[in-house]
Specification:
alpha+beta; Beta Polymerase, domain 2; four-stranded mixed beta sheet; 6 helices; globular
Length: 136
């Protein structure tokens, strides 16, 4: 994506060393965006994620972008025990834009393999996906 370098530059400026990784996912990465689709971003930050030091600075820095930038902030714990949104994103495909140590790429690949190996089962409830671990 052409805008990834500028977004990355600004995100690194905004979060400094707290930014451990940045990746894109969703319809724009999958190649099926609508004209009004936002750009979904996974933003891996070190430490706790508090609204005042993640969401609010992000909104100030990126709140007027077109397409809209929709960050989902995650911690190392999210990569160790992935929530449904992350399983869905990895299953559909992600595009890593920044990985300070190589750990993000490694963990996303491990999640993808776990999905392929059946460690997580995709289900739908009222049309919305969620994941469960099948019984052993």
């Amino acid at each position: 994506m052409a805008i990834d370098r500028e977004i990355l530059r600004r995100a690194r400026e905004l979060f400094g060393d707290r930014l451990l990784g940045l990746f894109a996912f969703g319809s724009r990465v999958a190649g099926s965006p609508r004209p009004d689709s936002d750009l979904d971003l996974g933003v891996w930050l070190a430490g706790r994620i508090l609204r005042r030091d993640s969401w609010l600075p992000w909104l100030e820095a990126f709140g007027h972008e077109d397409p809209a930038l929709d960050p989902t902030f995650l911690t190392t714990a999210s990569l160790d025990a992935p929530p449904s949104w992350l399983l869905e994103a990895v299953g559909a495909g992600v595009e890593v834009w920044f990985d300070s140590s190589g750990a993000l790429t490694e963990r996303l690949e491990a999640i993808r393999q776990a999905i392929e190996e059946g460690m997580y089962r995709r289900r739908l409830f009222m049309g919305l996906p969620y994941y469960e671990r099948p019984p052993s």
